[in-house]
């Protein structure tokens, strides 16, 4: 069958009409649906997803308007080895990215896209990352043949008719983003619950500001506003325009005195960004409010400060481990409903369950569709299973979330998951040293990406899989943010590690709500009130400077959590050296100077 663009396309924006027509011509969908974002559309989408077995409606008394989905067992995480930055010039990519010449990639993908939407609906999703009222709204159009992706995009991004109308009115530029699950349906062929393709490509064209994705329905591979646009493409825009697109949560911290500070923090995927963003402080009188849990766009304001907005509209959190203790605010948010749960267990009373959640059910259906009991050998939920929920439902969402100017950041935290070596918290000496800390950020890998879990890898600014250009140039961009602006107006930079362990393998620090004690030390540092000792790696809390009132933690464990062990750090030196060597001469020279300085301070 041939596709005809319905004449009732709800826009006169020629660029959008052309994009839709061109992709429809190539992919041959049976139908084209222009998304409005209305409640009625949501009803239709979710009904369609129930009819294909993709969605199971949860018990409305427990999780109203919410759905369970189970993916194909092979399509559960971001596929970094299938992710490409197709810059025109190869040297604008790497050493941490895969590259292919844009035309070569397009030829391959046009072959894959040819007829790939046959038998399906192509959804046209007009969306904006960040505020529609922003000075320069950051528009996108995602074309997808997945109703699951369309429903999820409605939760994760501001989308629909109001966005399209504004694009039309402004004749706005937009990021064209194509997504297909890569499973056309022949006449009479029944659909499967989770269509996908063994061949996967997640491709960014940085100069064109375009995204082409094929073969996967999973979040970061398929909800193209998120990692592909708001990090990979936006990081290139940010380089060109002098701002930062970062893999960071944003939180607002209010002290008992009423003083407000804004903190951004970069941790690799599945290292607790969402938990920190919604932290419930254990120290009296302190309050945390959430602004974002995954992505921060930060621009220098007229006042010289670094102002951050969260471009997203929902939370896409790791489910396992989330519970009333680790993240009570996330639990409250998802319990309000309007959420999609992917690759968790489904209970007999129509609720969801995952490892770490309270009250394990006697029986459930595992994410693989198998009968499951607490005695089962297999986990009920995939380690990277996710909840997708509207951020507006979060009771502790800060009012500033709706302000297109964002919030002025006082502190940036870098952090990773390290069993050894890295103390609970320390402060960088200045912006360049802070950039060095970010550049050498290391973490044990998690299930958020396909591959081995638990091996230490360097992950600059937690952006390793998300930098849309050469990582050396990216670090240089960070250095120049410090050089080009008044450093005293920029955020102070800290490094945290909640995950250090003792010889028995037990965590030294209790984490979660107790991390408010670390935040308190951070803001008191900024206000010149908290004591620190200078060590070779930076400023560590002086004995007694970290508030441990009411905390059941013996002094030896605290000391071990904060210890800077020169021998452990000496082992880091060759690793950092090797890491830096991978950048060749594209590594900013000042980072070598920083490494030399660290080596000298360690006396090596
Ligand atoms: O896997 S996603 O990219 O959707 C989320 C994450 O890894 O932070
Ligand atoms: Mn993330």
Automatic annotation (TrEMBL):
InterPro entries from the entry? PEP_carboxykin_GTP_CS, PEP_carboxykinase_C, PEP_carboxykinase_GTP, PEP_carboxykinase_GTP_C, PEP_carboxykinase_GTP_N, PEP_carboxykinase_N
Instruction: List the GO terms this entry assigns under cellular component, sorted alphabetically.
Output: cytosol
Chain positions recorded as substrate binding sites: 78, 218-220, 269, 384-386
Record-annotated Phosphoenolpyruvate carboxykinase C-terminal P-loop domain positions: 243-600
Q: Which reaction does it catalyse?
A: oxaloacetate + GTP = phosphoenolpyruvate + GDP + CO2
Enumerate the residues binding GTP: 270-275, 386, 417, 512-515
Per its UniProt entry, what is the enzyme's top EC class, as one word?
lyase
Say if the entry is tagged with keyword Lyase: yes
Q: Name one GO molecular function term.
A: GTP binding
Cofactor: record remark: Binds 1 Mn(2+) ion per subunit.
**Which keywords are on file for this protein?**
Cytoplasm, Decarboxylase, Gluconeogenesis, GTP-binding, Kinase, Lyase, Manganese, Metal-binding, Nucleotide-binding, Pyruvate, Transferase
> In the UniProt entry, which residues are flagged as the active site?
271
**Its Enzyme Commission number?**
4.1.1.32
Q: Which GO terms describe its biological process?
A: cellular response to glucose stimulus; gluconeogenesis; glycerol biosynthetic process from pyruvate; oxaloacetate metabolic process; propionate catabolic process; response to lipid; response to starvation
Q: Looking at the record's lineage, which domain of life comes first?
A: Bacteria
The entry marks the following residues as binding Mn(2+), namely 227, 247, 294
Biological pathway: Carbohydrate biosynthesis; gluconeogenesis
Tell me which Gene3D superfamilies the record gives: 3.90.228.20, Phosphoenolpyruvate Carboxykinase, domain 1 (3.40.449.10), Phosphoenolpyruvate Carboxykinase, domain 2 (2.170.8.10)
Where found in the cell? Cytoplasm
Q: What cofactor is needed?
A: Mn(2+)
Functional note: Catalyzes the conversion of oxaloacetate (OAA) to phosphoenolpyruvate (PEP), the rate-limiting step in the metabolic pathway that produces glucose from lactate and other precursors derived from the citric acid cycle.
Similarity comment: family membership: Belongs to the phosphoenolpyruvate carboxykinase [GTP] family.
Q: Which PANTHER family match?
A: PHOSPHOENOLPYRUVATE CARBOXYKINASE, PHOSPHOENOLPYRUVATE CARBOXYKINASE [GTP]-RELATED
**Designated name of the protein:** Phosphoenolpyruvate carboxykinase [GTP]
